[in-house]
Design a protein that fits this description.
The structure holds two protein chains of two kinds. Chain A is an alpha/beta fold. Chain A contains six helices and 13 strands. Helix content of chain A is 27%, strand content 31%. Chain A has a nine-stranded mixed sheet, sandwiched between helices. Chain B is of the alpha/beta class. Chain B has a seven-stranded parallel sheet with strand order 7-11-6-1-4-5-12, sandwiched between helices. In chain B, helix 7 (262-268) links the parallel strand 16 and strand 17 (273-278). In chain B, helix 3 crosses helix 4 (93-105) and helix 5 packs parallel to helix 8 (297-307). The chains are: A alpha/beta, B alpha/beta. At the A-B interface, helix 3, helix 4, strand 7, strand 8 and strand 9 of A face helix 3, helix 4, strand 7, strand 9 and strand 10 of B.
Amino acid sequence: MKILVAVKRVIDYNVKIRVKADHSDVDLTNVKMAMNPFCEIAVEEAVRLKEKGTATEVVAVSIGPKAAQEQLRTALALGADRALHIEAGERVESLAVAKLLAKVVEEEQPGLVILGKQAIDTDNNQTGQMLAALANMPQGTFASEVVVEGDKVNVTREIDGGLQTVALTLPAILTTDLRLNEPRYAKLPDIMKAKKKPLESKSPADYGVEVASRVSLMKVETPAERKGGVKVASVDELIDKLKNEAKVL
Amino acid sequence: MSILVLADLHEGELAATTAHVVAAAQQVGGDIDVLVAGEGVQGAADAAARFDGVSRVRLADHSVYAHQLAEPLSALIVALADDYTHILSSASTTGKNVLPRVAALKDVSQISEVLAIDSADIFKRPIYAGNAIATVKSDDALKVMTVRTTAFDAVSEGGSAAIEAVDTVVENTQSQFVKEELAQSDRPELGGARTVISGGRGMGNGDNFKLLDGIADKLGAAVGASRAAVDAGFVPNDMQVGQTGKIVAPDLYIAVGISGAIQHLAGMKDSKVIVAINKDDEAPIFQVADYGLVGDLFELLPELERKL
């Protein structure tokens, strides 16, 4: 079985963001970028399935600017066999990404597609579900455990209040949650080897997909800052303040 | 405008979050229908019919909709979608699972975690873990959106909307429900609790979360955790408060042994009053806390429980 894994280039999760002075967007100039953390978990899961013998090939795909090839090289260093880059602007909406991925799915015919549940820049949590709809596949979102058995995959999902397990008929779409696995770090020899692995580059036009925005970004603002309060010296003072000042007890 | 609200269910009962989504729908303005889809959910439909501002409850009660699996539920909503200009749900794990699928099938974008409704097509939503707020305008004819329920006050009850059965029964051969393990607790649900007490890596291990339980019982609070505590395996992920977990905005939020990473703050900084208990007086959590108490949580928590 072939596994397709989608990765996104985003701001590094440790970086504190700045809003541009003209409020047009977040300022990404000279900011450290990295693979979206949930996508790292997706790559790790795909590689583990290959190591277990469930998967025969892992193909990584990224849609984004030219520089997203860095994240594809990372995926290759982590164990993906080959990569596909579809070059598009910084801001491609989930629906357009899902349409492009649906075309790649049609071409590659994977048994599983694994994506991160959300990207930490736009925080949309949509692309996997949209791809499942367009590819007419079942979806196992927010996965914390994945077990492939014959022509089915059992997916344990993190839902509000607990866990849900569903059985999906393959081919299927999975999106990763935090506890699915702990991604490995790429070793130097693997990083060197990754440079020689195949990386193909295409454009949205090659797939006949229109990537124009349906949602326009009118303004980006910094949220109202919360002011720090006071330190209290004891539990008694805390209870007194909560009762008599904040009136929440 | 005509709006369809997908009702949230919890073990077949109507979840309290639905009343907040109806409130958001009122701000869009127009006729509001609530879709209750599940199996054996007449009671949930009756409850939804009592919400103020609801014109009609549409009840799809069939085994194929049991557990609200994404494949059949999205197909059902798509079958009803032509009657509406807006489709809303809460940003619950069900809403997040189902609505993007609906949007893609209708070839429209989806707008996630709406915080404020400026007009019928202009909305505010958080990006970058809530460190920026985007104002977006949707050019799609059908607006599909999930709503952050803590940003909208619930509508009150007193209405008596008509309940109409939906006959549409879709097929589902792709996915099958296997099991559900829901945390059994007498405490309020994390997302809707008026008081939340959360533990972080400073708790040391999962057993020590018991120190929070006694206080939670006295305050009628829900118990949460930081991602660090979840990653360390202290507690299950459904307790996680933060960018990638639950977003809460209670009257009182007590953060214990939590340093205050931006990903955690994203999930709780809209709380009315924040208390931080931490041994490190430089911890960033103190920059957002209304009341900070520096000290050893293993001494302070038992004292707090005793004195409450």
